[in-house]
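Inputs:
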Amino acid sequence: MLSRTAENLYWISRYMERAETMARLLDVGYRMSLFPNPKGYHNEWDSVLSAAGAAQGYFTKYNEINQENVEDYIFFDEENPSSVYSCISKARNNALLVRTAFTPEAWVAINKSYKEILELKNKKFTRADLPNFTEWTIQQVNMFRGSANSLLRNDGYHFIFLGTFIERADNSARLLDVKYFVLLPTADYIGGNLDNLQWIILLRSLSSFRAFRWAYDGDVTSTKIAHFFILNNDCSRSLSFCINNIVYHLNCLKCSPDKISDIYSGLKSVHSSVKDETVESIIEYGLHEYVTNFVSKISFLDNQIQNHFFR
Amino acid sequence: MFDEMYSDDAQIRKHYLQVNSWLRTMSSTVISQKNFEAESHFKRIGITFSVKDDDMTERIIPFDLIPRILTNYEWAKIEKGVLQRAKALNAFLHDTYNSGEIFKAGVIPKEIVYKKSSYDQSMINFSPPRKIYSPIIGVDLVRTGKDEFYVLEDNCRTPSGVSYMLENREIMMKMFPDLFHTNRVLRVDDYPTRLLQTLMSLAPKKCDSSIPTVVLLTPGHLNSAYYEHTFLSDQMGIEMVESQDLFVENDLLYMKTVDGPKKIDVVYRRIDDEFLDPLCYNPDSVIGVPGITQVYKTGGVNICSAPGAGIADDKAIYIFVPEMIKFYLGETPILDNVETWRCERDDELTYVLENIEKLVVKEVDGSGGYGMLIGPKSTKDQISEFSTKLKSNPRGYIAQPTLDLSSSPTLIDNEVSGRRVDLRPFCLVGEKVQLCPGGLTRVALNKGSYVVNSSQGGGVKDTWVLAD
């Protein structure tokens, strides 16, 4: 497989994954805006922007935070490189370049999303449309993932899913980092139960609100939530789940043995940060420090993948 | 005017009977709906004429639902004639760049060739694998009578349009499967397999594998034929590469893959000669591969078509193709050329100027239906303007009679109406010389028009060759 093709496939899935994260984040902000604002907390749009990594860009364009502007910035703004629109449009451009590595279904899925978001972007929207946009985005990403199943199980397929899980690991970790303080043991005193809005934000932004309840019956504690997001192998957005999948798809590459050994150290270090830890050891080490460390390990691994396979 | 469906006594020709009764069963509502279906299909798969970032400029070529049908008998003659031509053209290319027997024999004046910009001096004394310069030849044919087919031009470089031949058939089979039960239509869907076999049979001498690595070299997604490039490489299961994927080392050509460098044996290039190699041709080319010519000349890779192959489809050389067939093959040409006057000859120029309102005058280096004058369709002013250009540069023009192109039933505003058509079959020249039974039929959608080019109101049809 051409290096350029592999690189494009890797980025197509990263962009699609990112589009979903952005849409889910907005949905969280939207829900929170419908509830009475708990005293002593910042405006939730604020944390939506920082979780999206879009705060800096937003404030160069707008002076104050309001829902409409945040929505527009995160959904449609071409100047925001991570807006849903930018992600889908970049994914589509990459797909155009690698059409031979795609099945017609996979191409049609992306091309259709792009054409539709162009239309949505040109229409004036109202606040009430936001849940529809989120739903629409999630549908598009699911369609893309579903169509990827029609691909030949060759290196291209594995590069697509490598991209998906590298991006998801990074997104999940960043989300955790924005909200890490609500998972500190002391946070139990702040809210005291699952009605704690901050916990709900976290669970919803990782689309795991219901999953958590199924996975952990009875007693709800911040430690369990931390475990769910970091170490639970059944949670499809946990750091551990993402790492397992990264390892799996790297090992499936037909071209792998030599190159895998080159990136083995990076892989091993990121793997050990989910395999050799317990929630207690992580909290003792410092949740924030742990997550920061994890993000930099993922980024190191990402660099190694790019250098070894795409250059 | 010859009508493909109706005979002179207004009877429906036998091979159109089934299609005619099928047409009668379709209400205009169904026709509109099927037209819409076909159009959305072409848009969705992205078989656009020009793929641009801005979506508003993506166009699709209008597709006509009524197939153009050729009987097996008609096809037999076309096939023989095209194969004959393809062999002669390749023989001519080899002769031109090597011993030049045809010039020594005085059959073709050598100045005509050596002065052309498509003549590539760097190819002198070089012989590509199997002496084949042009492995894919698109021959443009027009019909004026029952047994009268004429060759309008040959395309020896990188003829495009074959993806339409294949996609038009796919959509017809999808929308009207019953038609293919009642008519025995020869298949075209094995064209990509045949193309790949042809390219593999042209591996260079340094290729040590029994399965040569073939790639398609595209200028990139802004090229108007980009869809065809992706389509063909996908169908053949070969990599579609751009210049940035390739590099030259130790007189071999490699592509950068996730496994490391992989050697390439055959390049099916869809970029022009001029841009192939900045070290040998246009130094400003960013879509070419530096050093690829050197690899080619030392037998490390084969480039299809060969640089300089364009000399064989030059409009000034075209006139001599029947002579080539006699000279190289010792055969009588099966398909006729259109009578052509070379304006560079004084007596022929005089004839052209006197009869210009009856003739089609073309620029020798023009293409795509531009830079030409259709006498019977032009105003007095246009004619006098063109005559002036002709007199000042006679060498730059040729003239041909206005051919009465055959007419084929076509749906115009949901009604059947005759429109003029041409035909481009695609001949493959490798270990075998073969012609896929079908081709691209282009149709001039404007009433009375002779211009079938998609840039000027042309559409396309599925082309059927019947098995019996």
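The first strand of chain B starts at residue 63 and ends at 70. Flag for discussion at group meeting.
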